[in-house]
Write a structure and sequence with these properties.
Largest sheet: 12 strands, mixed
Structural class: alpha/beta
Number of helices: 10
Shape: globular
Length: about 300
């Protein structure tokens, strides 16, 4: 089954070129199926890129999925045309009476600020609280993972001396979990962040389960509420050239950004990056949709609580 996307979303044409089966609302409306409802709170600056990355991963399932995009009323993005935001995104307050089978909250370029200093922190807190009773399972990614752990479980973040930047090997600590169905014992995950959360803080909280980590990049995946919340500190959704674009953007601007680790062939930025995380990225999102959304959500979506 395909993804059901808003008419005219740029990701539709981009993904059709990759032979990914997507359909717009006009065609999907003719099918008598109860699609899963997934909402994406996209906090990344390049929203169209992030939309495409996430939709690509959500497409790898036989289920029909209805994707919606949420935005903040308290923040106006600078790098996405206002026409795009008005056409495809809705404010949280307009969606707050709805319920969703799954939710994805992306990273945001505000990690060097204290959470309370982020201009939209109050609205983010309202959304995080709302998700507990209006969403079956939520994926928090990168900054959102840190913010979610801080808001829900009082887990602090810590600054890094140098940006965690590159592709790092992760170890599955609870391989029997359905989220890791089909995973190898070790899998690769892109990371791009200036702060971290620490394993001792996670292990000290009985409400949290540390389910994947790296000797080099630290905590990578935390689970709570039996899978109703996942906190992922890296970016499995990244496309092959995302780190390349970040490196070339920042290498002459910041002094805490080095060559992305384990990324370019022979560590030469003139070479094409080697993609070593794509298979596990597709598997993780498929497992999440299947085992933590589809098999857990009620058929009557209004019964989510």
């Amino acid at each position: 089954m395909p993804l059901r996307l808003p008419d005219g979303l740029p990701a539709i044409d981009l993904l059709k070129r990759e032979n990914i089966f997507v359909m717009d609302n006009t065609r999907a409306g003719s099918q008598d199926i109860r699609p899963l409802r997934i909402v994406i709170l996209n906090l990344m600056p390049l929203k169209i890129t992030t939309e495409t990355d996430l939709v690509r991963l959500l497409s790898n399932t036989p289920l029909q999925i209805d994707v919606s995009f949420m935005k903040l009323r308290s923040h106006t993005p600078k790098n996405t045309p206002i026409q795009h935001m008005m056409m495809f995104y809705r404010d949280f307050e307009l969606m707050s009476n709805e319920k969703f089978d799954g939710m994805i909250v992306t990273g945001a370029p505000v990690e060097t600020y204290d959470f309370e200093e982020v201009t939209y922190w109050d609205e983010i807190k309202n959304i995080f609280e709302w998700a507990k009773t209006h969403v079956t399972s939520t994926l928090y990614i990168c900054w959102a993972a840190q913010a979610g752990l801080y808001y829900h479980y009082q887990i602090p973040k810590y600054p890094l001396k140098k940006k965690m930047f590159g592709i790092f090997k992760q170890h599955t600590l609870e391989p029997q979990l359905p989220i890791f169905r089909g995973f190898d014992d070790i899998f690769n995950m892109p990371h791009s962040r200036h702060t971290e959360i620490r394993r001792e803080d996670i292990l000290a909280n009985p409400s949290l389960s540390l389910i994947a980590e790296s000797e080099d990049s630290g905590v990578s995946m935390v689970m709570a509420r039996n899978g109703r919340e996942f906190f992922i500190t890296g970016h499995l959704e990244y496309s092959p050239l995302t780190l390349d674009n970040e490196y070339k953007r920042d290498k002459d601007i910041r002094d805490d950004v080095g060559l992305p680790i384990n990324y370019y062939k022979n560590d030469d930025p003139e070479n094409v990056p080697i993609v070593t995380w794509r298979a596990h990225a597709n598997l993780l999102y498929s497992n999440w949709i299947n085992y933590y959304v589809y098999q857990e959500t009620p058929y009557d979506i209004n019964k989510i609580e």
